[in-house]
């Protein structure tokens, strides 16, 4: 027993010799992933799986001890602020949304009252009447901003993916062209083009299939100082009957500034839509698929990391001034002076993943959270596309926390009923699910790792994220919410962003708990009988092809 306990201690001490080196943790995580793949060729991992927590990233070294005087000194996740900016807010400014309709109506309402900025980042904008209604809201608000007695400087910035946004004759670009033509000084539309789709590959891969190489997948919608973080796109199903997750951060100027700057940064390394439906590169920027790939990725990395590091420095200075400045107002004096902002009881951490640009913050934080989840903790993890990376699978199977994983049944998969090869994608997910479930059973972990399938007649399922319940707690202390799906694409191919919300406020914890319950109550437990159903029979060719293509969907 002593020898077993010594292993983790030695590993932690070894990494502790190199403080402030999250890159090392990432490297060790990749080595773990590779070792795991080699070791699993015959799918016999039982004894070695116990090493997963040791070979995965450790908690990044805290540069200073927890501050007993600071509100955030009492929560155990403050190590995340060594990687990204930390935003302390009152829980009264955080609202969890429940439905696509609520999401759609809130967005329209927020656009109508925006005075300074509307920033929208999504994979694409659909072409139906509901999407047109959204565009009409933008047009009306822009017109009002010019006709007001005191005209405002309202700016609209929209970031979409180039390949998905250009699909078909009527597409996201054609939907937005009237806005660009009518308000050229106020509207910016940026179309991100992955640097990995270039040369002969770009010429040969047809439309739709070219989207498998890499996408702009961030979903962030902000209006003045209000922000919605979600996994939902700007398309009719996401406004009606496609279940996702959404959180509304109200009157959070620092967070709104951060996501404005992040979208601006990605926009600067993207193609700019012009009024004649052509695209141009920002002056002085390397072209994403015609220019040198290494130079482009280096410039993009510097542009995005400058946003992250600058915001992190600002928040550290704000923290120091608020809680450590000798001559500064105490909270009581601040309230007396007219600053009635409640003390923070909730902390927001933006987690960015852009592997093409060598930015792996979300991956490091997610792996660390899974590694550090102790015995008795409960992790509720959900994804519309169950295709976990090998590193995430090893951590789920090799750590001691309890897991309940919610995934889409084939009938609510977004590809269900699709034409052509895409129609086989739900069956491929069934195959991946069955392989994972078989491994859970072979390790005798059915009681600790449970799978559940979401089903709702006439709906599809797109929710992703996790809720972490600490040992002995009936309410979650942390949630991850945003665009990543925990799969290979999210980690390696696409541009992703989500936020970690850490809260000590019981009312907000209850909101998050109820959100989790709403989703899981519409699910059924997966058992061996699940895969005996006729609808779960996977054709041989799908089984053979899935290992070859699973990294592309």
Describe what you observe in this structure:
- The protein is an alpha+beta fold and 553 residues long.
- Helices cover 40% and strands 18% of the residues.
- It is built from 18 helices and 21 strands.
- Strands 1, 12, 13, 14, 15, 16, 18, 19, 20 and 21 form a ten-stranded mixed beta sheet that branches. Strands 2-9-7-6-3-4-5-10-11 form a nine-stranded mixed beta sheet, with helices on both faces.
- Strand 3, helix 5 (129-147) and strand 4 (155-161) form a beta-alpha-beta unit.
- Helix 4 runs parallel beside helix 5 and helix 10 (253-268) runs antiparallel to helix 11 (293-324).
- The radius of gyration is 23 Å and the shape is globular.
Please provide a brief summary of the model:
The protein has 553 residues and is of the alpha+beta class.
Gap from first CA to last CA? 43 Å
- Uncertain runs are 1-69, 326-331, 334-338
Number of E-type strands: 21
What is the subunit arrangement here? single chain
Radius of gyration (CA) equals 23 Å
The structure class reads alpha+beta
Q: Can you give the helix content as a percent range?
A: 25-40%
Number of helices: 18
Main sheet properties: 10 strands, mixed
Features of the shown structure:
553 residues; alpha+beta; ten-stranded mixed sheet; 21 strands; 18% strand; disordered N terminus
Topology, element by element:
Elements: H1 2-16, H2 22-39, H3 52-55, E1 87-89, E2 94-97, H4 100-113, E3 117-121, H5 129-147, E4 155-161, H6 162-165, H7 172-182, E5 187-192, H8 199-204, E6 220-223, E7 226-230, H9 236-240, E8 242-243, E9 246-249, H10 253-268, E10 271-273, E11 279-281, H11 293-324, H12 331-336, E12 346-354, E13 359-360, H13 361-372, E14 378-383, H14 390-398, E15 402-408, H15 425-442, E16 449-454, E17 460-461, E18 465-469, E19 478-482, H16 488-493, E20 495-503, H17 506-520, E21 523-525, H18 540-549
Helix pairs in contact: 4-5, 10-11
Family: Belongs to the CDP-alcohol phosphatidyltransferase class-II family.
Main location: mitochondrion
Pathway: Lipid metabolism; Phospholipid metabolism; phosphatidylglycerol biosynthesis; phosphatidylglycerol from CDP-diacylglycerol: step 1/2
């Amino acid at each position: 027993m002593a020898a077993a306990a010594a292993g983790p201690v030695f590993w932690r001490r070894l990494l502790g010799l190199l403080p402030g080196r999250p890159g090392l943790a990432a490297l060790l995580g990749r080595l773990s992933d590779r070792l795991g793949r080699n070791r699993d060729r015959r799918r016999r991992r039982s004894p070695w799986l116990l090493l997963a927590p040791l070979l995965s990233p450790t908690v990044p070294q805290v540069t200073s001890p927890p501050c007993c005087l600071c509100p955030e000194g009492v929560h155990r996740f403050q190590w995340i602020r060594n990687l990204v900016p930390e935003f302390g807010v009152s829980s009264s400014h955080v609202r969890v949304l429940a439905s696509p309709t609520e999401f759609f109506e809130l967005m329209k309402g927020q656009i109508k009252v925006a005075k300074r900025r509307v920033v929208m980042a999504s994979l694409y904008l659909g072409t139906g009447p509901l999407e047109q209604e959204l565009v009409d809201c933008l047009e009306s608000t822009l017109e009002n901003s010019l006709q007001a007695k005191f005209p405002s400087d309202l700016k609209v910035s929209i970031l979409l993916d180039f390949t998905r946004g250009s699909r078909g004759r009527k597409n996201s670009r054609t939907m937005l062209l009237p806005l660009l033509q009518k308000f050229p000084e106020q509207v910016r539309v940026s179309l991100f083009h992955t640097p990995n789709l270039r040369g002969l590959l770009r010429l040969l891969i047809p439309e739709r299939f070219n989207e498998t190489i890499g996408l702009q997948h961030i979903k962030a919608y902000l209006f003045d100082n209000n922000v919605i973080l979600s996994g939902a796109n700007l398309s009719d199903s996401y406004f009606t009957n496609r279940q996702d997750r959404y959180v509304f951060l109200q009157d959070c100027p620092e967070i709104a500034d951060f996501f404005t700057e992040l979208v601006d940064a990605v926009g600067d390394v993207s193609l700019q839509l012009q009024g004649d439906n052509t695209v141009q590169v920002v002056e002085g920027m390397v072209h994403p698929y015609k220019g040198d790939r290494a130079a482009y990725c280096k410039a993009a990395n510097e542009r995005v990391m400058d946003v992250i590091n600058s915001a992190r420095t600002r928040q550290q200075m704000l923290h120091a001034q608020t809680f450590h400045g000798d001559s500064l107002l105490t909270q009581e004096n601040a309230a007396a002076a007219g600053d009635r902002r409640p003390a923070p009881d909730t902390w927001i951490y933006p987690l960015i993943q852009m592997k093409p640009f060598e930015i792996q913050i979300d991956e490091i934080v997610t792996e660390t959270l899974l590694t550090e989840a102790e015995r008795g903790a409960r992790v509720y993890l959900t994804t519309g596309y169950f295709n976990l990376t090998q590193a995430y699978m090893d951590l789920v199977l090799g750590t001691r926390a309890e897991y309940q994983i919610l995934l889409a049944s084939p009938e609510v998969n977004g590809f269900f009923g699709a034409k052509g090869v895409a129609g086989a994608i739900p069956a491929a997910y069934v195959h991946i699910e069955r392989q994972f479930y078989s491994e859970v059973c072979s390790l005798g972990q059915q009681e600790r790792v449970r799978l559940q399938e979401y089903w709702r007649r006439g709906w599809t399922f797109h929710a992703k994220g996790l809720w972490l319940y600490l040992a002995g707690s009936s309410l979650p202390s942390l949630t991850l919410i945003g665009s990543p799906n925990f799969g290979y694409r999210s980690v390696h191919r696409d541009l992703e962003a989500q936020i970690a919300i850490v809260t000590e406020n019981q009312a907000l914890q209850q909101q998050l708990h109820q959100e989790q319950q709403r989703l899981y109550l519409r699910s059924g437990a997966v058992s061996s009988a699940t895969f005996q159903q006729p609808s779960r029979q996977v054709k041989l060719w799908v089984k053979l092809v899935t290992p070859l293509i699973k990294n592309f969907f």
